[in-house]
Amino acid sequence: MEAQTALKCPECCSNVADKAGFRYLEGNFNIQRFKCKKCGFRFSDPTALNVKDTDRTSSQISADEAKNLVSAQKTKTCAGNERPIPHETRGLLVKFISYLERAGYYEKSSYYDLVRSVASDGANLLDPENVKTKIAQHTYKFKNGREGKWKESTKLLTVQASDVFCTMEGITWTKPTNYKPQETPLIVADEKDLDALIASSQSKRMTAYLQCLKETYCDPGEILALEWREIKGNIMSIAHPCKRHRSGQYEVSNQLIQMLNRLKKKDRRVFPTTYEVMYQCLFALRKKAARKLQNPTLLDINFKSFRHWGGSMLAHYTKGNVLKVQNALRHKSVLNTMKYIHSIQNLREDDFEETVATTPEEVRKLGKAGWNQYSEMTFNGTQMLFFRKPKHFGVT
Questions:
Q1: What's the pLDDT at 393?
Q2: Domains of the chain, earliest start first
Q3: What is the mean pLDDT of the chain?
Q4: What DSSP line would sit under 1-49, residue for residue?
């Protein structure tokens, strides 16, 4: 049942929302919850939050008591997954996060979280041998109660984080060398599936976001950080690159510019939201599109599928030219580019645009535009040269 049209989503300002249960408070006081049908954001009825104090019963608790109750609930919830961290260890963790900031480590680095996970297992952070044991034996619980173990790549990253911690404390230790990063196969989605997912979106924001990913093959976080001032005409500048990426510029289509111009400009960012909210919207979108189009392969598409598709297409079109692919994907290290070179795929005939040239002037223009000649023939005394190039790509 849809909510009243006067009710607007605080995230995307849409007035189409479904009722999503209640928020139960003390004193038998309930607040209606809603879920936006466009962006999936959950929010409460704002009119219910303005209830007078006289409407509430005397059994309600004070704000200070509520904070203590929340802390107690958090401690009780986490007790099954991690042990209470001793006061001395908490002091070391605070010191560690300050050290990471002073040393200039990436602000979204997972080093602190990994070291804290080891500390929650009861490890003595000042004893390297004990830390190595906890890393090897670390387990965690899924939401359904099952236990899981860290992957080899996660253990390797935890060893690196522990090495930084030992450097901070001046501790000499022997790092484990048996952990190797696991190679994950690069699954390249079909372009028709990507286009079908974009066409299935009924949200202007999601449609524009997915089209940005397809035309620029950027990292999802780079597009989320995109600002309006970084779009000049058909040129889109990536001024906030992710880790191990460089900044750069892309020439995008007029269709994408029109999509962006239809969005509301209430913030300096083009997409003023979080990655978690966008991924929830994508999860709902691909589920709905897969059911409607009877295409289960859409369920495997994520935001990075657009970058993987673009990098693989670039590798094929440039015949495995590492430097050209590295420059287009803005990798700082060529090692990150090699996985796209190894995933070169054979293109079908419908993946190409074709044209014909009959004069030297036409041949010269097509050559400058990046077209490749693949055949020729003479018909009624006229020599015809056939050119083609992959769709959406103009790398020479």
A1: 55
A2: 1-52 (2.20.25), 87-169 (no CATH), 191-341 (1.10.443.10), 349-390 (no CATH)
A3: 79
A4: -BPPTT---TTT--S-EEEEEEEEETTTEEEEEEEETTT--EEE-TTGG
How many Cβ atoms from other residues are within 10 Å of residue 126's Cβ?
Answer: 14
d(CA 283, CA 290): 11
Look at 121-135, 266-280, 329-343 and tell me which has the smallest mean pLDDT: 329-343
∠ Cα 245 246 249 (to 5°): 120
Instruction: Tell me how far apart the alpha carbons of residues 195 and 305 are, in angstroms, rounded to a whole number.
Output: 12
Q: Which two tokens stand for residue 75?
A: 């401690």
Residue with tokens 């035309």: 215
Q: What percent of the chain has pLDDT over 70?
A: 78
The Cα–Cα gap between 255 and 36 comes to: 27
Give yes or no for a contact between 35 and 41, defined as CB atoms under 8 angstroms apart.
yes
Burial 99-117 (b: 16+ CB within 10 A, else e): bbeeeeeeeeeebbebbbb
Residue 183 DSSP symbol: P
- DSSP state, 362? H
pLDDT for 79 equals 36
Report residue 3: phi and psi, to 5°.
Answer: -75, 175
| Angstrom distance (rounded) from CA 230 to CA 241 | 13
289 neighbors 210 (Cβ within 8 angstroms): no
Model confidence at 187, pLDDT cuts 50, 70, 90, reads confident
As a dihedral over the C-alpha atoms of residue 59, residue 62, residue 63, residue 65, rounded to 10 degrees, the angle is -90
Tokens of 311: 């990098």
Cβ neighbours, 10 Å, residue 260: 21
Rounded to an integer, what distance in angstroms lies between the CA atom of residue 326 and that of residue 250?
A: 14
Closest-CA residue to 329 (of 269, 229, 386, 250): 250
Is the separation of the CB atoms in 121 and 82 below 8 Å? yes
Pairing of the two strands 372-379 and 29-36: unpaired
Tell me if residue 99 falls in helix, strand or coil: helix
- Residue 75 phi/psi, 5-degree rounding, is -65, -40
pTM: 0.59
Query: How many whole angstroms separate alpha carbon 369 and alpha carbon 220?
Result: 29
